[in-house]
From TrEMBL:
The lineage of its organism: Bacteria, Bacillati, Actinomycetota, Actinomycetes, Pseudonocardiales. The keyword Oxidoreductase applies. This is Zinc-binding alcohol dehydrogenase. Its cofactor is Zn(2+). Signal peptide: none annotated. Belongs to the zinc-containing alcohol dehydrogenase family. It comes from Actinomycetospora atypica.
Amino acid sequence: MYSARAFQVLRPGESAVVPVELPEPGPTDVVVRTTQTAISRGTELLVYRGRVPESQAAVMRAPFQVGDFPGPVTYGYLAVGVVESGPEGLVGKAVFCLHPHQTRFVVPAAAVSVVPDDVPPGRAVLAGTVETAVNALWDGAPRVGDRIAVVGGGMVGCAVAALLAGVPGTRVQLVDVVDRTDVARALGVGFAGPDEALGDCDLVFHASATSAGLTRSLELLGTEGEVIELSWYGDRPVTVPLGEGFHPGRLAVRASQVGRVSPARQARWTFADRMALALRLLADDRFEALVTETVAFEDLPTTMARLDHGAPGLAVRVDYGG
């Protein structure tokens, strides 16, 4: 029997690192020793605060979550580690898995994706975020020369902006109330505060998880433009301004959610295909700009409390040592 330590939300606003027992691996399982994870601030803070609506509890479950909301619950989905045992060909490989913060875990071999040799494992923890961005671009279908805004400069918004920067001829502007000028420059896009953002957009990706951000997204659209809504609001009500120019401009708001492969690709792409693509894209050094802090695994309880109180930054990488 393997043992491990896991980060657990005990109840809203309270967490700890706790010992866990792992199941005996079967012939098609892998045992992974975790080397790094990352905190997905938006979703994980909703879980930490106990803000997951009962109606969405099933949808919000992480693939290898233990426990139920609001707690005790072991949650997370950005993990990289080394395969210690399992099917031939995987042992010793660095792999990504949608697994909570835990020092070691046992999962089916099909649940892990091999990290390409040209992708640093510490950057590979962003694979789930980049996968979300890939799905968003499939949903939004940006075209050559489009004028595009990305409202909300968190992890997902920055990943979307990075991918959009590669579409020829586009005008891409990252928009946030926090000054993300340096990050936007590193990603190869422009930056503006909400009041200075350029309008007449063909497409706006919204990822701020605020009513104000959604309102500004609609204001930035040109006639017959579309907002791709990436935010997850938990149990918070959201105001959508459907007066003024919404109907005359024939504007649209459409949800994008990584839990399903975009309808534009699902006939030909599997979840594994999409994840493999996200990992290949992370060979691009620009994505390193999304990681703004590294903490030790044992410090996760104090780190989450600090993030809950508004600590600045983007992705927090968690180092497991050894």
